[in-house]
Amino acid sequence: MKTNIENIFSFIDTYTESTEVLYLEAIIEACELWLSGKQIPELSGDVTKEEIRRGIQLAVLKGMQQSAQPHHQMTPDSIGMLLGHIVEKLTKDKETFTIFDPAVGTGNLLYTVMNAVEGEIVASAVEIDELLVRLSAVTGELLQQPVSFLIQDALRPLLIDPVDIAICDLPVGFYPDDENGLNFKLMPATGHAYAHHLFIEQTMNHTKPGGHALFIVPENLFDSEQSKNLHPFLKEHSIIRAVIQLPESLFKNASHAKSILILRKPFPEMKATPEVLLAKVPNMKDKHAMALFLQKIDIWVAE
């Protein structure tokens, strides 16, 4: 007997293979048919939001393998679930909170985090690729996770109020628009700025005092050519709360390894600068080691 996740993937995949449009476009059509009730997958019991997300995710991953777009990448579930656990702990005393993803892509990271958290969430997101926004929006409708989207360059002015929580799998590389880059403190004196640096600055500009920003960053973030600009910026405009190294096994190439950087926006009531949590995520297949690691995270949040 197939699981709900397999049935959802099969429903979408069968529809997409029967059409001549781009696979990712056909996923949107299949999801819209599901929403309208004209065609629906075979589901057993009470289907969960995570089952829906994972079923759609499998189809999107297949579609991305057929796509020539190099920026069509998805944050691994294991990383999303870890961020979800941290956000759940950071917001456990809030009945409602706001969350923002400035590079939302297909929405998989954002929805993984939202599904992991209880309480009412007001979400906003930015993505420049219209196809990815449409994918993310139809997924959000099926998950009943409302998100307000802006289709634009996230490094342009944003009509988004400051939020309690920001998350972002940072787009890595150079930002080509030097003229717009001059609006940022992290724009270097010569050459192109690192887009991932500017995304950090832009995100912190849209985080409330006392709010947290969780970034998936290149492991060499603080050792790169432009890190000499990043260090003083972070010292002045944020509080570094944690740097968590992710297992190299999560990445095809060790040179593409990443970490989680957690920043907090300074706030008037802050009494002292807390110690920075430096940690390394164990092998995620080792349940005992992961349980101890998550316990360490919980103690850190509580303190």
From TrEMBL:
The keyword Protein biosynthesis does not apply. GO terms for molecular function: methyltransferase activity. This is Class I SAM-dependent methyltransferase. It comes from the Bacteria. Coiled coil: none annotated. Pfam families: N6_Mtase (PF02384). Transmembrane segments: none annotated. Gene3D superfamilies: Vaccinia Virus protein VP39. Residues 186-288 form the DNA methylase adenine-specific domain. The lineage of its organism: Bacteria, Bacillati, Bacillota, Bacilli, Bacillales. GO terms for biological process: methylation. InterPro entries: DNA_methylase_A-5, DNA_Protect_Modify, S-AdoMet-dep_Ade-MeTrfase_prd, SAM-dependent_MTases_sf. Keywords: Methyltransferase, Transferase.
